[in-house]
């Protein structure tokens, strides 16, 4: 299953689109109140990804194991000690509302931890590589939203293809500035 995210930020706003297996949805993330960028930082989104993954996977695994649940809460946190440094001591906890015996709920928590894809990605230390800009269309992002965004930013140009900036087009992930 292919999952991707697209962000477009300019003086007029901040747009986030997510795509999973061809299904596209927007995520409401505000622009910074002062200055460029997102009001939400990547560390916060990473912790939200961990909490969201575990929440969704609790329901998936509960159905697989036949354990009834009526709700859950998940908290994820990490310590970031400086610019450019990776997170340390990533931890999370969860509480499940269920009529099932405590032993079954404990089994559900363990099984979900074992099968949570985002958690396992971090545990495996997945490589992250910057590649040449291909544009949102190459990732299957909604082209009409891109055109709408280009019109809103006043350029009336697409964000990929021949009118993309030369700096962006030339970014290959190689050389002294990679």
Structure characterization notes:
There is one protein chain. The protein is α+β, with helices and mostly antiparallel strands. It folds into 2 domains: 1-39 and 134-166, no CATH class; 41-128, K homology (KH) domain (GMP Synthetase, Chain A, domain 3), CATH 3.30.300. Helix content is 34%, strand content 22%. The protein is built from 5 helices and 5 strands; from the N terminus they run E-E-E-H-E-E-H-H-H-H. The chain has a 3-stranded antiparallel sheet, with no helix packed on it. Strands 4-5 form a two-stranded antiparallel sheet. The protein starts with a strand and ends in an 8-residue tail after the last helix. The model is unreliable at 145-178 (pLDDT under 50).
Structure summarized in a few sentences:
The protein is α+β, with helices and mostly antiparallel strands and 178 residues long. The protein has helices at residues 42-65, 102-115, 117-124, 143-152, 166-170, and strands at residues 3-10, 13-20, 23-26, 71-79, 88-97. The protein has a 3-stranded antiparallel sheet with strand order 1-2-3, with no helix packed on it. A two-stranded antiparallel sheet has the order 4-5.
Q: How does the SSE layout of this entry go?
A:
Elements: E1 3-10, E2 13-20, E3 23-26, H1 42-65, E4 71-79, E5 88-97, H2 102-115, H3 117-124, H4 143-152, H5 166-170
Antiparallel strand pairs: 1-2, 2-3, 4-5
Helix pairs in contact: 1-2
């Amino acid at each position: 299953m292919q999952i991707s995210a697209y962000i477009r930020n300019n003086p007029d706003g901040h747009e986030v689109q997510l795509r999973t297996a061809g299904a596209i949805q927007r995520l409401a993330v505000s622009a910074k109140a002062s200055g460029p960028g997102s009001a939400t930082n990547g560390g916060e989104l990473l912790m939200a990804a961990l909490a969201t993954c575990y929440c969704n996977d609790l329901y998936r695994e509960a159905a697989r194991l036949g354990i009834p649940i009526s709700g859950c809460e998940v908290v994820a946190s990490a310590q970031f000690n400086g610019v450019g440094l990776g997170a340390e001591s990533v931890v999370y906890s969860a509480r499940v509302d269920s009529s099932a015996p405590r032993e079954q709920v404990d089994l559900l928590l363990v099984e979900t931890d074992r099968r949570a894809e985002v958690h396992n990605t971090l545990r495996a230390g997945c490589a992250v590589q910057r590649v040449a800009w291909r544009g949102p269309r190459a990732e299957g992002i909604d082209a009409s939203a891109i055109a709408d965004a280009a019109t809103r930013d006043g350029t009336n140009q697409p964000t990929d293809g021949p009118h993309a900036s030369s700096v962006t087009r030339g970014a290959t992930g190689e050389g002294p500035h990679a």
